[in-house]
From TrEMBL:
<keyword id="KW-0274">FAD</keyword>
<dbReference type="InterPro" id="IPR036188">
    <property type="entry name" value="FAD/NAD-bd_sf"/>
</dbReference>
<dbReference type="GO" id="GO:0050661">
    <property type="term" value="F:NADP binding"/>
</dbReference>
<keyword id="KW-0503">Monooxygenase</keyword>
<dbReference type="GO" id="GO:0050660">
    <property type="term" value="F:flavin adenine dinucleotide binding"/>
</dbReference>
<keyword id="KW-0560">Oxidoreductase</keyword>
<dbReference type="GO" id="GO:0004499">
    <property type="term" value="F:N,N-dimethylaniline monooxygenase activity"/>
</dbReference>
<protein>
    <recommendedName>
        <fullName>Flavin-containing monooxygenase</fullName>
        <ecNumber>1.-.-.-</ecNumber>
    </recommendedName>
</protein>
<keyword id="KW-0285">Flavoprotein</keyword>
<keyword id="KW-0521">NADP</keyword>
<comment type="similarity">
    <text>Belongs to the FMO family.</text>
</comment>
<dbReference type="InterPro" id="IPR000960">
    <property type="entry name" value="Flavin_mOase"/>
</dbReference>
<dbReference type="GO" id="GO:0004497">
    <property type="term" value="F:monooxygenase activity"/>
</dbReference>
<dbReference type="Pfam" id="PF00743">
    <property type="entry name" value="FMO-like"/>
</dbReference>
<dbReference type="InterPro" id="IPR050346">
    <property type="entry name" value="FMO-like"/>
</dbReference>
<dbReference type="InterPro" id="IPR020946">
    <property type="entry name" value="Flavin_mOase-like"/>
</dbReference>
Length: 461
């Protein structure tokens, strides 16, 4: 941990967003003694987990003037991580056994995650800090402070000055649409997973789903319940890949990548197979976008790298007044938000110091060079993958909090292995009872729970 040089001081901090990252940022900032205003354009907390049956008018999300629907959650969505490793550290995401309206499954539905975040906000009185239906439209540095312009539901704008701004606005709203050669003259329908809600509209269709990880695996199987055929284009697979899955609906094929789309309506895969498709569904990820941020050209987004950002959190020359919580995707999310938030709160109070801006830039330049040397494309800068636990341990040490419990990381790794090997049933058939036991013993030893869920492994099992 870098030693504190300044006296601990309280700052006036704006947090943008009341999703999981904004909620924990608000709590950590408040705990550290800062005053906090959370700006949230929706009517409630929860961010991505507020399911909306409505989707955007432009199914690919390319029209910059389209009204934005924030959430990318589909009706059938269940978490892609086990709940034990997903929750915040001192507020475990455990089943509410006394409330039958709640979903007690290990991989619960999106509604249960929203209910958990609402419980968290209530427990730590965070809603009192939130200005709902208030959108931040501009953030800019002025004389060492930050001017935040917001607009409320009556369209009234207000400018306020803050010592610091923490950006927690999420990054699963702006679709990344993979390019397919020939797609411009292909006559079928196209939709990005951001706008996918239910399978009904795909009844009796031949559907091509691009992407075979969490959302692609789910959506292809959801659509297959009503579609005539579903063909999944899987980038990770060898060029010759062509496999028909007999479960669950006997109408789903896995192919290699798409070679081209043709104006006669066919889609040709790299395995040489062609299908005449009605719709292409892109499960190809998202782009970072901060339309409210004005840094006089200091920050930019290049090929989905938000730069320059020291350890994915602080832009060196604008730190610590500007910070970002939640940028790295995949792996443990909520606990990452928690540890990053503790770091931001401690740096703002002066309890922990950052290196000088030029040192942070040196570190950044070295990390970009390392990615390049490893052949990792720029657009994967914030995808930490296997190094997430090292990253989190580093940030945790920096702000003096406990490293991530090994059982969490192991649950994530084992869960992702199951997702790949058993995408149909990975949420209900698991082989890590040992890790569930460890998690609940950990919660119990910290007096965070007083019961065990029904799926908890009984002794002797
Ligand atoms: P969000 O939840 O998106 O919240 C951002 C908030 O900021 C929103 O409420 C938004 O309204 C507000 N906002 C944005 N701009 C403004 C503005 N200008 N002014 C005011 N307010 C603004 N993670 C897991 O841990 N487990 C899972 O199972 C899992 N499943 C996922 C499934 C899908 C389909 C997707 C897309 C992601 C999934 N994730 C999962 C990752 C998930 O996004 C994170 O876990 C987390 O919920 C993101 O929280 P956030 O606060 O960063 O962003």
């Amino acid at each position: 941990m870098a030693p504190a040089q300044n006296l601990v001081s309280s700052k006036h901090v704006a947090v943008i967003g009341a999703g999981a990252s904004g909620l924990i940022a608000a709590r950590e900032l408040h705990r550290e003694g800062h005053t906090v205003v959370v700006f949230e354009r929706e009517k409630q907390v929860g961010g991505l987990w507020i399911y909306s049956p409505k989707s955007e008018s432009d199914p690919l999300g390319l029209d910059p003037t389209r009204p934005i629907v924030h959430s990318s959650v589909y009706e059938s969505l269940r978490t892609n991580l086990p709940r034990e490793c997903m929750g915040f550290r001192d507020f475990p995401f455990v089943p509410c056994v006394d409330d039958f309206s709640r979903d007690s499954r290990r991989y619960p539905s999106h509604r249960e995650v929203l209910a958990y975040l609402q419980d968290f906000a209530r427990e730590f009185k965070i809603e009192e800090m939130v200005r709902f239906e208030t959108e931040v439209v501009r953030v800019e540095p002025v004389d060492g402070k930050w001017r935040v312009r917001s607009k409320n539901s009556d369209d009234l704008s207000e400018d306020e000055i803050f010592d610091a701004v923490v950006v927690c606005s999420g990054h699963y709203t702006e679709p990344y649409v993979a390019h397919i050669p020939g797609i411009k003259s292909w006559p079928g329908k196209q939709i990005h997973s951001h706008n996918y809600r239910v399978p009904g509209p795909f009844k009796n269709e031949v559907v091509v789903v691009i992407g075979n990880f969490a959302s692609g695996a789910d959506i292809s199987r959801d659509v297959a319940k009503v579609a005539k055929e579903v063909h999944v284009a899987s980038r990770g697979s060898e060029a010759s890949t062509y496999e028909k899955l007999s479960v669950p609906t006997n109408n789903l094929w896995i192919h290699s990548e798409i070679e081209t789309a043709c104006d006669d309506g066919s889609i040709v895969f790299k395995n040489g197979k062609a299908v005449h498709a009605d719709t292409v569904v892109y499960c190809t990820g998202y782009k970072y976008k901060f339309p409210f941020l004005e840094t006089n050209g200091y920050m930019s987004i290049d090929d989905n790298r938000v730069e320059p950002l020291y350890k994915h959190v602080f832009p060196p020359a604008l730190a610590p007044g500007l910070s970002f919580v939640g940028l790295p995707g995949m792996g443990i999310q909520f606990v990452m938000f928690e540890i990053q938030s503790k770091w931001v709160a401690a740096v703002l109070s002066g309890r922990v110091t950052l290196p000088a801006p030029e040192k942070m830039m040196e570190d950044l330049i070295a990390s970009y060079a390392m990615l390049e040397a490893l052949g990792i494309p720029k657009r994967y800068t914030h995808k930490l993958g296997k190094i997430q636990s090292n990253y989190l341990d580093w940030v945790a040490e920096e702000c003096g909090c406990q490293p991530v419990e090994p059982w969490r990381t192991q649950q994530v790794d084992r869960g992702y292995e199951r997702l790949v090997s058993n995408p149909e049933n990975y949420r209900d058939e698991w082989d890590d009872d040992d890790l569930i036991k460890e998690a609940y013993e950990d919660f119990a030893s910290k007096k965070l729970i007083s019961f065990l869920p029904s799926y908890f492994p009984k002794s002797g099992r």
